[in-house]
TrEMBL record:
<dbReference type="GO" id="GO:0003700">
    <property type="term" value="F:DNA-binding transcription factor activity"/>
</dbReference>
<dbReference type="InterPro" id="IPR011991">
    <property type="entry name" value="ArsR-like_HTH"/>
</dbReference>
<dbReference type="InterPro" id="IPR039422">
    <property type="entry name" value="MarR/SlyA-like"/>
</dbReference>
<dbReference type="GO" id="GO:0006950">
    <property type="term" value="P:response to stress"/>
</dbReference>
<dbReference type="InterPro" id="IPR036388">
    <property type="entry name" value="WH-like_DNA-bd_sf"/>
</dbReference>
<protein>
    <submittedName>
        <fullName>MarR family transcriptional regulator</fullName>
    </submittedName>
</protein>
<dbReference type="InterPro" id="IPR036390">
    <property type="entry name" value="WH_DNA-bd_sf"/>
</dbReference>
<dbReference type="Pfam" id="PF12802">
    <property type="entry name" value="MarR_2"/>
</dbReference>
<dbReference type="InterPro" id="IPR000835">
    <property type="entry name" value="HTH_MarR-typ"/>
</dbReference>
């Protein structure tokens, strides 16, 4: 076995960091409020109508405390706001402000340009194949005993 060969999760992480670093640098160059990679990830999983902190944490795969800290930083930066959840008096929804919506739209433009740049570097077919593989449902993670998932 080749011990220098990186595993797939490492490669996926490196690809994600490539996009994050380029996105954050482009936004900073455009004068946007600086955000951390965690804050950028939170922004990307936020629903238009708003999302609870608990749901954001689940989507990001982080603790509620981590999601809460990221939300507070983005609220302080004027990119997000907290509003009452009409479905629950105890919860609040996290939504983009007008400035947050503007920055999000700019981020989407930057990401599209980065995808084009990647296609120039590794080929349009490779990018299309990567997208197709990542968009294909993988199903639940396999159980340790080799079963089909947590339920077995």
């Amino acid at each position: 076995m080749d011990h220098s060969r990186r595993n797939l999760p490492q490669l996926l992480g490196e690809g994600r960091r490539w996009f994050e670093e380029a996105l954050l640098a482009a936004l900073a160059a455009a004068g946007a409020v600086p955000v951390s990679p965690t804050q950028a990830q939170l922004f990307s999983v936020l629903d238009e109508e708003g999302t609870t902190v608990a749901e954001l944490a689940r989507r990001m795969g982080v603790t509620r405390q981590t999601a809460h800290q990221a939300v507070h930083g983005l609220v302080a930066a004027g990119l997000l706001e907290q509003t009452p959840d009409p479905a629950s008096a105890r919860q609040r929804l996290i939504r983009r402000t007008a400035e947050g919506t503007r920055v999000h739209a700019r981020a989407e433009e930057v990401l599209a340009a980065l995808e084009e740049r990647l296609a120039e570097r590794i080929g349009a077919e490779a990018v299309a194949a990567l997208r197709a593989a990542l968009e294909t449902p993988w199903g639940p993670p396999p159980a340790p005993d080799g079963g089909q998932g947590p339920a077995g």
